[in-house]
Amino acid sequence: MRIAALDDDEAQAETVSRLLSEAGHSCQTFHAGKALIAALRRETYDLLVLDWNLPDLTGLEAIAWARENLASPPPILLLTGRSDEGDVVKGLNAGADDYVIKPVQPTVLLARVNALLRRAYPESGGGGIETFGDYAFNLPADTVTVRGEPVALTAKEFGLALLLFRNTHRALSRAHILEAVWGRNPDLPTRTLDMHISRIRTKLNLRPENGFRLAPVYSYGYRLERLEEKATIEG
C-alpha cells in the first residue's frame, strides 16, 4: 500500500518510513503539513500517518483539510506524543481513524496500520477469487472472466484492472497507478499507462451499458466508476 507519513522530526519520520517499507508498503515522508497538502492535491495515498504538533499547521488541521477536500479520504492514523485522554478524544473526534501514542513499539504500529488498511480496503470473495459485478478476478491464475467468459489480459493489464476495480469510485493519481503496477519509481514513457488503460477499457468493455465507466481525471489520473443505474434497471 502507498502511505504518507508526516512528522517534523526527521529521525522519527525516517523510522516510520523504514518500518512500513520493510513491511512491504511504499512510504513517502513529509516534514511540514503544507508539503503534505500540496502532495495530496496531485497524488493518492492509501493511508496517512500524521504527527499532531507541526511548525506550520497541526495534524488536526491536516485531517480537516483531507476530510473537506478529498473526494475519497484515506484512513488517517495520528501518531503523537500527546497522551492525555482529552487529546485522544479530540483527535478521534477531529477525524482520525486511530490514535497511537509515542514512543510506539514497531509491532504495535504495524498492527494498527494493517488493521486500518484491512477495514478500508477489504478483499472481496474467497478462494483467491475477487468479484465485482459481472467481473471475476482469479488471483492465483492471473485471469479474469466477464459473465463467465475468459478475457485474455497481459500480466500488467491484469494488475491494472484489478487495482482499478479494488478502488472503484476513487480517483487514482498516475504516479500511484504506475508505482502499484510497474513498481516504485518506474522509468516509463508517459504514454505507457494511457495505452494500457485503453486496452483494458476495450478488452473488458468498460462501458456504461455494462455498468462501469473508466474515465480520466484531468491533470491527475483515472477513476473507475460503477454505475448504479444499471443495477437498478436490472433489479
Q: Can you walk through the features of this model?
A:
- This is DNA-binding response regulator.
- Keywords: DNA-binding, Phosphoprotein, Two-component regulatory system.
- The protein is of the alpha/beta class and 235 residues long.
- The chain folds into two domains: 2-120, 3-Layer(aba) Sandwich (Rossmann fold); 129-234, Orthogonal Bundle (Arc Repressor Mutant, subunit A), CATH 1.10.10.
- Helix content is 41%, strand content 22%.
- It contains nine helices and twelve strands.
- It has helices at 10-22, 33-40, 59-69, 85-93, 106-120, 155-166, 174-182, 191-203, 228-234; strands at 2-6, 26-30, 47-50, 76-80, 98-101, 129-132, 135-138, 143-146, 149-151, 172-173, 212-217, 221-226.
- The strands form three sheets. It has a five-stranded parallel beta sheet with strand order 2-1-3-4-5, sandwiched between helices.
- A hairpin with a 2-residue loop joins β6 and β7.
- α6 crosses α7 and α6 crosses α8.
- It is elongated.
- Mean pLDDT is 90; it is low at 231-235.
